Amino acid sequence: MATKLVVKPQITVSHLSPPLPNSIEMLRTQRSTVSATNNNNKKFSRFGDWSFAQRTISLNKAAEQQNVQVSESDFRADASQIKIELYDALQGINRGIFGASSDKKSEIEELVKQLESQNPTPEPTSSLDKVAGSWKLIYSTISILGSRRTKLGLRDFITLGDLYQNINTSEGKAVNVIKFNARGLSLLSGELRIEARFKIASKSRVAIFYNGSAITPDQLMNVFQKNYDLLLGIFNPEGWLEITYVDENLRIGRDDKGNIFVLERSQEDKL
User: Fold this and answer.
1) Structure pTM?
2) What's the pLDDT at 151?
3) Measuring CA to CA, how many Å separate 124 from each of 160, 198, 222?
């Protein structure tokens, strides 16, 4: 197992928490505008009569009849609407970290697939500027359940906060930052930082290599000392990551362990 390495990385990273209100409102506004223009003021509703699949079929049929190609802009509004549905589906499940029903997981994965089918950046490793910066995790299929949650004190003693990922593309480095609060220590706040480096493996995939980790402050490290390997085993990013969707404010990835990650661009860097 990876050895404990108390370091202060010079780079930045971020990962998980509820979607930012501003982003949701911006998308809702876009959705209302598109619905009024394209659907004759017909209100868009999740999985309603005017679903994503039906909209896509209608556009394609119209294009076939008129012998013209459907432009990328015809689908752009649909991506915004799918994002709204995705944000709605993520409400109340605490990023999926402590589990979600099979129906909820299926709903989220279907929306993720719909977004992936409209990825505006099909070769993300050729446009790493879109990946660089600070991101906050809003959903993951990684879950902490049963005895693992109990051993880590995440049922009552320790509260899991935001998870961030800061990516420095010029140095090929990333840092995952997992925030914690310890209720039994006068609401002590701390974090686990996991430093990794990455290397381009294909037009959409990066290979990830673990560099080191640290928990601060020392009091929090003492809390996790006994189960430190377990903690690293959950959040250790080593392996590969396929970047399946990335735009100005949302990124989706799938790793070699079959996990899905949905991240929202953070409004401020987390050093």
Assistant:
1) 0.73
2) 94
3) 30, 14, 40
